[in-house]
Amino acid sequence: MSGRPLVLASASPRRLELLEAAGFRPRPVAADLEDDAVRVRFLMPAALVEALAAFKAARVTRMLGDEGERDAVVVAADTLCFDGSRPVGKPRDEAEAGAFLRAWRGCPHRTVTGVCVLVDGRRTLFSDLATVEVGDLDDGEIDRYVAGGGWRGKAGGYNLAERLAAGWPIRCEGDPTSVMGLPMQRVVPLLRSLGCGPDGGVR
User: Fold this and answer.
1) Where are the alpha helices (DSSP H) in 118-203?
2) Strand 6-8 with 73-83, pairing
3) Residues with catalytic annotation?
4) What is the Cβ-side half-sphere exposure of residue 190, based on CA atoms within 13 angstroms?
5) pLDDT digits (tens, 9 = 90+) for 148-174
6) Alpha-carbon gap, residue 25 to 5, rounded angstroms
């Protein structure tokens, strides 16, 4: 049975794949916001990613209202890695991607994903924390990965599932899907409670 329309306020293919793998059929609508334009650097990690997710959800909800689509459940998320207290987003270029990955070796880092769900003017906001540790990854492997462009568009310069599949020595403490951009252990029951259902959403 088809459920309530579900809109993913993101252009991220990884978030879309996670929702589809859980049985949802969301319609992706990009929020068209540059994270750096709205980032408030003095916020604590959880508050920062939650604020960014809330910006995206509100932006897409307004866009849908302009189109006359007012009954959709809108889910937005933002993911950042943290080097100590310093937020680390998506690398700007190859040099920064390589620097990120070298910094992660042997030094556990936090990945925090903020989620905002908006429906009927009601907002649910939360964040999820996971800790990732990259083992002894040699410079040659990093250089090949960076040259191949796999770092593009990924917080911290990597996607956890892809790198595990590639045999990288990575250990995750927490929900791996949170590191991938959407903490599904918490998102799935929330969306079902809002009427989306396992097959909810429309294209």
Assistant:
1) 139-147, 160-165, 176-179, 184-193
2) parallel
3) 78
4) 20
5) 999 998 889 999 999 999 999 999 999
6) 9
